[in-house]
Amino acid sequence: MPILQPLGRAFLIFLAAAGRLTLFAANAVSHCLRPPLYPRLILRQMIEIGYYSLPVVGLTAIFTGMVLALQSYTGFARFSAESAIPNVVIVSITRELGPVLAGLMVAGRVGAAMAAEIGTMRVTEQIDALDTLATNPFKYLIAPRLIAGLTMLPLLVLVADIIGVFGGYVVSIYKLGFNPATYMENTLDFMETQDVVSGLVKAAVFGFLITLMGCYHGYRSRGGAQGVGAATTNAVVSASILILCSNYFITELFFAK
Amino acid sequence: MTVAEPNPPKIRVRNLHKSFGDKHVLKGLDLDVGASESVVVIGGSGTGKSVLLKCILGLLVPEEGSIEVDGEEVVGMSGRDLERIRRKFGMLFQNAALFDSLPVWENVAFGLTQGEGVGRAEAKEIALAKLAAVGLGPEVGELWPAELSGGMRKRVGLARAIATEPEIIFFDEPTTGLDPIMGDVINDLIVTCVHELGATALSITHDMASARKIANRIAMLFDGRIIWAGPVAEVDSSDNLYVDQFIHGRAEGPIKMEVRAL
Questions:
Q1: Pairing mode, if any, of strands B200-205 and B38-42?
Q2: CB–CB of B114 and A129 under 8 A?
Q3: pLDDT value at position B1?
């Protein structure tokens, strides 16, 4: 059947890609666990991923918190439930918006840069050069990035949580006329350990996915500038989609009854 | 030791096959490189010269055939064994393949600091000595690869290839992209460095001036096989139409260039 042929071919291509990615991830993770590690390189990546993403993540968080307060006010005012705003802000930020938006922003910033850097190293034979100098590229290039992504994203999200809640606070106090003390009290009352922890677990998973996609697509890029461009796009798109998918499943794991 | 006993080859390649998709690049290639010998593989662009080097280094895995380095089979090797074999090699890449993220001296010292665990201070000293050996001053060591000209990059690449004093050095088109004078400077450096280290050298090039200068023996790669091999002095009297066409750079002859993609 000529109709089934392309379908089957596409399916096989998909399976091959999934297999390649799994092998790549397994290899990368095994190099994260086995010494020698490169502390200097890990630190450099931590600064690159964690510290330099602070402005982007901070801006995202503060405006998200602000708009969240504003929007829920217009909604809740219709049935006089304005007092629920601190609750809505803290729960949405810690559970969902903090990790997901920070993850997406970092995917755009770090995932793209990573794919471009490793992709350029691939097409200019720098990765071959690493191999010939008896240095495993997984150990030298990929493991430090994965470790940094896994550890830095939770810290970034913690900062995003605080800034996001602060954004909601600012709008509620100065624009919507809430009492600062009551607002803070309500916020702290509604803050649940599980909400924050689930957000941080998500962040760690997202950090892993972002760096994995950046490294994977960069490592496999072919054919000069165009190949590197395609790798960059693929890294950001696949990381973003994986973030949104895994977000659902982690949420289900934590909160589904 | 009897005179008749030939030296065992440092590198022995037998019946090597490698394809990419439908494209069969190497079709049963045989090649021997003796210890302390300098062999240059010549051949047109896209005939698989680089593929040959990458197969020997284990960067590409051939479909069929055997590659022995010092009598050890390399094909199918992985992990620590492969790393151990690779420590015997140094390689000068076509565009030098310097690490952009490291200053020049760390590039040169890379094999020492990462591969062999030499301390940074000592490695830097060695790196600067190697840079001096290729005619670059210590101030170049502090520059970044992006700040170097093509000729300087090649020299730094050469310094990196010899830094660990390898037994075998590969040169991938050492003079491509350089002006003839700088090309000759690089050729001289290659000859000197290989001679001083007593290393075995395998180079690939399509630059005949370079091949004549650095080779003891020349091998011609065409259609996935070595079609002619002999001492450099015999290359002009090979009576091989393919070799003649190549060394004189004629468009007419048995080698047809595929100008149009098939």
A1: parallel
A2: no
A3: 39
Structure tokens that stand for B99 in this block: 């690490």
Is position A223 within any domain? yes
Q: Strands B89-92, B168-172: parallel, antiparallel or unpaired by DSSP?
A: parallel
Q: Which residue of B has its CA nearest to A122?
A: B97
- Tell me the average pLDDT across B209-231: 87
In a domain, A155, yes or no: yes
For the domain spanning B9-248, the CATH number is 3.40.50.300
Residues A128, B98: C-beta atoms closer than 8 Å: no
Tell whether B110 is within 8 A of chain A (Cβ). yes
Is residue A131 over pLDDT 90?
Answer: no
- The verdict on a CB contact (< 8 Å) between A128 and B93 is yes
Q: What does pTM read for this prediction? A: 0.84
Q: What is the ipTM of this complex?
A: 0.83
Question: What part of B 16-75 touches A (C-beta under 8 Å)?
Answer: 54, 57-59
The number of distinct structural domains making up chain A is: 1
Distance (Å) from the alpha carbon of A38 to chain B's nearest alpha carbon = 10
pLDDT at B261 over 60: no
Given CB atoms, is B90 within the 8 Å cutoff of chain A?
Answer: yes
User: Which residues, 6 or more positions from A13, have their beta carbon under 8 angstroms from its beta carbon?
Assistant: none
Phi/psi at A16 (nearest 5 deg)?
A: -60, -45
Tens digits of per-residue pLDDT, A3-32? Answer: 888 888 999 999 998 999 999 889 889 888
What element of type H or E holds B67? Answer: strand B64-69
For residue range B63-104, what is the model confidence (pLDDT) as tens digits?
Answer: 888 888 888 888 888 778 888 888 888 898 888 889 988 898
Domain boundaries, chain B: 9-248
Is residue A137 domain-resident?
Answer: yes
**Given an 8 Å threshold on Cβ–Cβ distance, is B111 in contact with A125?**
no
Q: Which structural domain, as residue segments, surrounds residue A166?
A: 37-255
Instruction: Check CB contact of B197 with chain A, cutoff 8 Å.
Output: no
To the nearest whole number, what is the mean pLDDT of chain B? 84
Peptide bond into A36 cis (omega under 30): yes
**Which of B56, B101, B153, B156 is the best residue to mutate to test the A interface, defined by the most A CB atoms within 10 Å of its own CB?**
B101
Q: Quick one: pLDDT at residue B3?
A: 43
Q: With respect to residue A11, please indicate whether it lies within any of the assigned structural domains.
A: no
DSSP track, B221-240:
EETTEEEEEEEGGGGGG---
